[in-house]
Amino acid sequence: MTFRFARLVGTLACAFGLTGLSGLATAQTAEMSVGHVLATASHYHAAAAKFSEVVNQKSKGAIKATVFPGGQLGGEVKMLQSARTGTLDVVVTGEAPLEGFAKEFAVFSFPYLFSSVDQINGVLQGPIGRGMLDLLPKYNLVGLGFISALERNIFTNGKVVNTVADMKGLKIRVIQGPGYVKAYQALGAQPTPMAYTELYTALQNGAVDAAENSPDVFLQDRFIEVSKTYANLKIMYMPAVIVMSKAKYDALSPEMQKVVQEATAEAIAFATAQYKKDYADAFAAMKKTGVKIVEPDLKPFMEVGRSVHGDLLGEFPMAKPWYEKIVAATK
Question: Is the keyword Lipoprotein in the record (predicted)?
Fold first, then answer.
């Protein structure tokens, strides 16, 4: 018989402590929900699916992890709130919603802080990334690990963005992180708040001129149907992270915590490899369908984007130590 994870986790912890892994097959099964907001073709889903597969296998039936993609359990902010209160188990999310309560994470929305996906992934998988994850328990979350960061570029419903001047007056939907808003304001654009679920229609009817996202998401969420120019501005590299409710994690036996950690390691490797493939496939699809891919000179964009770092550090002083560590690590 299967019961909700929240009701049985205490019982399972006791059972695990008494029987160890060898006795798990006879224990009652606990359900673990894993949520994310992207499509099933995304590397978020690849991470969630691999995590769930390994948890199910290595727990030998003690835990049944199930993935809920496409925002079935709510948006990222809602899911993180649920995880913090212990009503949701695991979330695969972009880091931007974490900035609402873990202000140190605002450092990741500083424009042009990193130069490539590989560079930021190296930082995320090293001591700086581990240190950032170690901040989360005080917010009732356990940071299990980072999967590949996403490169953020601009796509438009007509206008070609090739210079900073082309940004002037561009009505663009952006993530509502402070760095995103300030960067696009400095570049002369008009950052526009909007629910992600409304973006496709807004681009289609001209309510906004542009948006920013990773090339794989541009393809997977079908923006390729309504946007015919894609400018590789590389303004942000947004980390993606697997987090777990601290209450749920702490209630697991040491054996099951190890299972979760092993599942995370496999999910990171699997999803990071998929992101690289999806990135390349997205550009191939753009070329095939006639999307104009623009490769601007990034130096003027970098100069303007980095000019807001001082303002952001003034607004988020708690991010300064992490900013300094990242700058030192990426020289």
Answer: no
Under 8 Å between Cβ of 215 and 289: no
Instruction: Determine whether 4 is exposed, middle or buried from the number of CB atoms within 10 Å of its CB (0-12, 13-18, 19+).
Output: exposed
- Match 């170690």 to its residue by tokens: 134
Query: In angstroms, rounded to a whole number, what is the distance separating the alpha carbons of residues 198 and 176?
Result: 15
**Token pair belonging to 216:** 């794989």
Sequential DSSP letters for 156-181: ESS----SGGGGTT-EEE--S-HHHH
Of the candidates 51, 95, 89, the one whose C-alpha atom is nearest the C-alpha of residue 76 is 95
Nearest to 44 by CA among 308, 220, 197: 220
Q: Per the structure block, which two tokens stand in for 68?
A: 């809920």
All domains in the chain, ordered by first residue = 2-329 (3.40.190.170)
Q: What are the pLDDT tens digits along the chain (331 aa)?
A: 333 444 444 444 443 333 333 334 445 788 999 999 999 999 999 999 999 999 999 999 899 999 999 999 999 999 999 999 999 999 999 999 999 999 999 999 999 999 999 999 999 999 999 999 999 999 999 999 999 999 999 999 989 999 999 999 999 999 888 888 999 999 999 999 888 889 999 999 999 999 999 999 999 999 999 999 999 999 999 999 999 999 999 999 999 999 999 999 999 999 999 999 999 999 999 999 999 999 999 999 999 999 999 999 999 999 999 999 999 999 9
Alpha-carbon gap, residue 136 to 91, rounded angstroms: 13
Contact 166, 132 (CB under 8 A): no
Please tell me whether residue 226 adopts helix, strand or coil conformation: coil
3-state helix, strand, coil in the chain (%, to 5): 55, 20, 25
Dist CA 214 CA 199 (whole Å): 15
